[in-house]
Design brief:
By secondary structure, the chain is of the alpha/beta class. The protein has a single domain, classed as Protein-Tyrosine Phosphatase, Chain A, CATH 3.90.190.10. It contains seven helices and seven strands. The longest helix has 18 residues. It starts with a helix and ends in a 7-residue tail after the last helix.
């Protein structure tokens, strides 16, 4: 069977889906969304989303709203963004080094725990809610957020599969999509990253 024949229908679902509350030391609410939700600044402000974690290598956003350097002579604008922006850049399928999922977990954990300096060059407040996005919010972001929930709340999500089941329901992913939400190779990478994360937490090297 060809890959295009196995592709599940893409159902309508919310631009943002609330996945979990009270995550990290600032008590953030965690959302998943696709590109439409991630680029809707009014929607992000309405949900107090101040942190954007973009999983997709094939998607970027123009977030500069206070330019230090204006566009000129082929150069793009540079300056402060409308929110704190972190980019992982995974492929939705084969081609990612397995350590990228672990890197994504560490970036997401770091974003949840950062404390902003009280300086004019860091015009951001601590805290705020978090949106993890990819192009559709169905695969890369589902794998990463499931990994985070399993690692951060093992009493509630003792296995990665428990976390994936919760995220699928919260994101309104249908059973006939599950073979690709998330893609199997991303789920495998999340399982491996969970092992590494536990080793790091115990003070052991993450690799043999």
């Amino acid at each position: 069977m060809k890959d295009e024949d196995r592709r599940a229908p893409v159902y309508e679902r919310p631009a943002l889906s609330l996945i979990a509350d009270n995550i990290g030391p600032h008590g953030a609410t965690l959302y998943i969304g696709g590109m439409e939700g991630a680029r809707d600044m009014d929607l992000l402000r309405a949900h107090d989303i101040r942190i954007l974690v973009n999983c997709a290598v094939n998607l970027d956003f123009d977030l500069v709203d206070r330019a230090l350097l204006a566009p000129e002579n082929g150069k793009v604008a540079a300056g402060y963004g409308a929110l704190r922006y972190y980019k992982i850049g995974m492929i939705d399928g084969d081609g990612n080094p397995s350590a990228m999922m672990l890197a994504g977990l560490l970036i997401l954990q770091g974003a949840l725990r950062q404390t902003m300096p009280a300086r004019a060059t860091y015009p951001f407040e601590d805290g705020g809610n978090v949106l993890v996005n990819c192009r559709a919010g169905r695969s890369r972001s589902v794998a990463l957020v499931s990994l985070l929930l399993h690692v951060e709340a093992p009493e509630r999500f003792p296995t990665l599969d428990d976390a994936v089941a919760h995220v699928r329901e919260a994101r309104a992913l249908r059973p006939d999509e599950w073979f690709e939400t998330p893609k199997p190779m991303l789920l495998d990478a999340a399982r491996e990253a969970a092992v590494w994360a536990r080793a790091i937490a115990k003070g052991a090297p993450p690799l043999d």
